């Protein structure tokens, strides 16, 4: 009798042959550094805390451009502390520009989403879960941080500010193919190219703070190069 009941009971649901379970999203943070020995342990700790508390799969790729202050040594210690599956040090021998740092880091990224940000704590990692929520809400190709005043107005854009952004990996790869800038204008060109290609862009209001340690890495000559890059960009788009 029991055997008859067993034979009549509905079969257990099982995954159909040839069909894979949907892949869990993974987020690769590209973190270019130059003379960030003091800031790096803090930004990494905050990133790990934010991702871990939110149950988000992640990796942090540190691209150090030959920092003379020992940033690379600190990054190597962080790799040992958190594990080489979570912290990936991918250094370069010298300072080669922000745009090329992202290109270099992207080669090692295994996530299907890419987050680009600075290591100087000018934007807090606590906003990243909001970026991820925003992306999922609107199925956006890109989510960008935007500075807002308390009354809803937008702050004037600061030449020394670099914006935190989240990209679909394939979108970032396509944009990098289109971009010609290599320095700080790279991020602005990316968003202009994205609009040209009709990628969807979501925005998350975030607050900015001044550098915790050290000084801005954008000097007078780089500001001149930045402005020249902007003129070239607007002349060719």
UniProtKB/TrEMBL annotation:
GO MF annotation, one: dolichyl-phosphate beta-D-mannosyltransferase activity
Source taxon at top rank: Eukaryota
Catalytic activity: a di-trans,poly-cis-dolichyl phosphate + GDP-alpha-D-mannose = a di-trans,poly-cis-dolichyl beta-D-mannosyl phosphate + GDP
GO cellular-component term (any): endoplasmic reticulum membrane
KW Endoplasmic reticulum (keyword) present: yes
GO BP: dolichol-linked oligosaccharide biosynthetic process; GPI anchor biosynthetic process; protein O-linked glycosylation via mannose
Keyword Endoplasmic reticulum found: yes
Subcellular location: Endoplasmic reticulum
Domain (Glycosyltransferase 2-like) ranges: 28-188
Biased composition (Low complexity): 1-12
Pathway: Protein modification; protein glycosylation
Ranges annotated as biased composition (Basic and acidic residues): 13-26
CDD domains reported in the protein's UniProt record: DPM1_like
Pfam families given in the database record: Glycos_transf_2 (PF00535)
SUBUNIT field: Component of the dolichol-phosphate mannose (DPM) synthase complex.
Function: Transfers mannose from GDP-mannose to dolichol monophosphate to form dolichol phosphate mannose (Dol-P-Man) which is the mannosyl donor in pathways leading to N-glycosylation, glycosyl phosphatidylinositol membrane anchoring, and O-mannosylation of proteins; catalytic subunit of the dolichol-phosphate mannose (DPM) synthase complex.
Record-stated family: Belongs to the glycosyltransferase 2 family.
Protein name listed in UniProt: Dolichol-phosphate mannosyltransferase subunit 1
Species in which this protein is naturally found: Equus asinus (Donkey)
